[in-house]
Amino acid sequence: MTQLIDGLVEQMTTWRHQMHRLPETGFDVHMTAQLIASLLKEWGLEVHEGIGQTGVVAVLRKGDRPDRKMIALRADTDALPITELNTFDHRSSVDGKMHGCGHDGHSAMLLGAACQLAKRGEFEGTVVFIFQPNEEHGLGAQAMIDDGLFERFPATEVYGMHNLPGLEAGVLALRAGAIMASESLLEIQINGCGGHASSPHLVNDPIIPATHLVQGLQTIVSRTVDPSEAVVVSVTEVLTDGARNVIPSTVTLKGDCRTFNDATTDQVERRIRTLAAGISEAFDTLVEVTFSREFFVTHNAEAQTQAAQCAALKVNGPERVLLDVPPKSFSEDFACLQRVVPGCYVFLGNGADSRGGCMLHNPHYDFNDNILETGALYWTALVEQQL
């Protein structure tokens, strides 16, 4: 197995801590992008900045036939709008922002692989390193695609990776097919006629149909969708314009729906609209339904999953690779890239103990530096195998 350049793990740790101390969110990742671009240029890669606003793309060509084949590797760069509660030296120095999902680690591992491959890589072809902003809002991947990502860098395969708390540190986990759910946002506004709480007979209370609808939505999972399909329909907010002694005129329900295929998403949306229309009509209220598809299903292609599996086994051996990890109900805009180019997304265990087991998006979370080496080795093995 390939050995990393002496001192590279320590360098990755330094880069990771630097990004962790100075987290940036959304598309506003200018300092992070500048750090990434400067390192890539230092190693002699062809660097393109400002793709999809603040995305960075680096190209590495090697061998006598560099145009023989092109593959892409992607890491996300943005942080979260969360106040960090950790006390270690590399904690966030920016109030209200932290790397609570490990994108600092993802970027550091891909930087490590770029350094390794630039200096010692043994392959014939072209690697495209994608450093993507604004994954958390699901906007960055599409922004880079719309900015000509795959027209300018026509990769035939794309690969991604995310750390996974609760999974033993350094274990690689993957599966063919759906590995992460789609996410759709739901908003239902029920309009009645409000008034004084002492005279309910003179108003048309929208709270009554709203409560019926909250209950009715739960039947989508239990009575509409095939039991073999995993579906989540959650009402997460109930908002009114009423007060203690005022029956409201409007109730707004907000929620979140997740599925593992587009057909089920279509089925869920149809049923939500049918329930909302029927219940609203029964209570003589008006209803408006907004169903916004925010994230697609992250779907691993068979051929690229086989490639990722081979690389994972080469790095970890069979005892530290899970080949049929259960799909996760969270979402990722890497799915946008996969809708253009076939690819595979894998998980890398962040740890199951106090060191790496804290859940993502928690103010006490931190990426586990002990897995940086495994991530960089996986990327390196994948490139040298595929090219």
Automatic annotation (TrEMBL):
Keyword Hydrolase belongs to the record: yes
Residues where Mn(2+) binds: C101, H103, E136, H162, H361
Domain Peptidase M20 dimerisation per the UniProt entry, residue ranges: 187-276
CDD domains: M20_Acy1-like
The entry's keywords: Hydrolase, Manganese, Metal-binding
Bound cofactor: record note: The Mn(2+) ion enhances activity.
Coiled-coil segments on the chain, per record: none
Transmembrane region(s): none
GO biological process, one term: diaminopimelate biosynthetic process
GO MF assignments: metal ion binding; N-acetyldiaminopimelate deacetylase activity
SUPFAM superfamilies attached to this UniProt entry: Bacterial exopeptidase dimerisation domain (SSF55031), Zn-dependent exopeptidases (SSF53187)
Cofactor: Mn(2+)
InterPro entries in UniProt: Amidohydrolase, Bact_exopeptidase_dim_dom, Peptidase_M20, Peptidase_M20_dimer
Matches recorded under PANTHER family: METALLOPEPTIDASE, PUTATIVE (AFU_ORTHOLOGUE AFUA_6G09600)-RELATED, PEPTIDASE M20 FAMILY MEMBER
Protein name: Hippurate hydrolase
Organism of origin: Marinobacterium mangrovicola
